[in-house]
Amino acid sequence: MSTKGQAALRIHADDTVAVALRALCAGETVTVGQVAVTLTEPIAQGHKLALRSHEPGDPVIKFGAPIGRATAPIAPGAHVHVDNLVTALVGELGYDPASARSALTQRPATALTWQGYRRADGRAATRNEIWILPTVGCVGPTAETIAREAMERHQRAGREGGLDGIHAFTHPHGCSQLGDDLAGTRALLAGLAANPNAAGVLLLGLGCESNQLGALVDSLPDGARAKVRTLATQSAGDEFAEAAALIDEMAEQAAACRRETIPFGELAVGLKCGGSDGFSGLTANPLLGRFSETLAASGGRAILTEIPEIFGAEQPLLERSTDAGVFQSAADLINGFKRYYLDQGLPVSENPSPGNIAGGITTLEEKSLGAVQKGGRAPLVDVIGYGAQVRRSGLTLLEAPGNDAVSSTALAAAGATLILFTTGRGTPLGFPVPTVKVASNSALAVAKPHWIDFDAALALDEGQDVADAAFLERVCALASGELTAAERSGNRAIAIWKRGVTL
């Protein structure tokens, strides 16, 4: 169903607000379904307008759920935003595991295929690359130099073959860390090393750091050690020559790989949103949700994270748990994140960001209700910790914060071979695996074609079925080797979640 020509959209029948689909003027009369209101003030695109009167304390409803409470009288046609709406979120909550039920996806499997690389462990990769992962920030620049020189060397020799690239992913951590903080860094790097998109990995150490090479190798997931090489620069003679020899060996093996036809359901996809706006919950995130349902029905793996951006929208997600154990693990993870904030004397509702607010999002409940739509109605099958590997077909909940770089890196470490990243404000940054930027609105897609890979506003203009088919085709093309915007521009990085003291 297309909304072309409409001025505003009521998302759910119970909503007390609508979303402006274009900039609206004071005095303009807007008809939303059976309700007509005259605007008392201008309403920016993506922002909310009241469909009925609200008194102070009344819940404001969007997506069919409360997004906060009114702090002042709100007349029909008024702008609903930070001046008259606040969060109603509190701290930890009790959740009833008896409400857990297996929710079947609403969409059938697809027979689509893509061209990928088959690994020895049976997993499928969207890229065939050599990755250099430093154990510590001290050798980050060294790693970058080694990667740059190796790629230039192989390009000059014309030996790339099936080798898609050689990349170093640097970070400032790995030393002056203790306990769980150091363990988290180690788990994250081990997870990245195990990602199928890395045909070979050089773990580059210094020698005296806390994150010792031996302990890192010992923490690698089963099956990953065969493709990993290590080098401690303090004990090497010429570290550049020794690294070059190791990379040349791995690159020669990788260059022999060729793409083959892979079923759609063998994709492992990370779900992420960043720089959201008022359209994110209307276009881009629901698009990913329908994609996730199709992927889960096809036997694929979708990974949802950003736990703080579930606060206020957790109940519908929890109710899709396939059993009480998954339900309880997810509830504990959500409450644990709330405790993480409360223990620091901080509110659980500090989100949304200034950019979110400028784009029309007022409260964390509103942001969360839009964000969780990335998982659609796919069954929640598993909950995994930071640095752990995705294990099951369906939707997995991954422990990580909302920060774009930290959570996207965690998705790659969990085994995602593609990240679908929605945005309403725009961001150029990509991550180790292909990062598909999905714009929530056409203005962003037109203004930043060098950032954006797909315009989800197609769902408003041409209808969901058209958008869904186009998106499936686009994702398969990108999985098959077409470069994302972030890959073309070289915007690829990692970030590690630092949770402890620094010595």
TrEMBL record:
Keywords: Lyase
Pfam families (alphabetical): GD_AH_C, GD_AH_second, SAF
SMART domains noted in UniProt: SAF
Tree of life domain: Bacteria
InterPro entries for this protein: GD_AH_C, GD_AH_second, SAF, SAF_UxaA/GarD, UxaA_altronate/galactarate_dh
GO biological process, one term: D-galacturonate catabolic process
Gene3D superfamilies, per the entry: 2.30.130.110
Domain SAF: 15-86
Keyword Lyase: yes
GO MF: lyase activity
CDD domains xref list: SAF_AH_GD
Protein family according to the UniProt entry: Belongs to the UxaA family.
Name this protein carries in UniProt: Altronate dehydratase
Biological source species: Novosphingobium flavum
Lineage summary: Bacteria, Pseudomonadati, Pseudomonadota, Alphaproteobacteria, Sphingomonadales
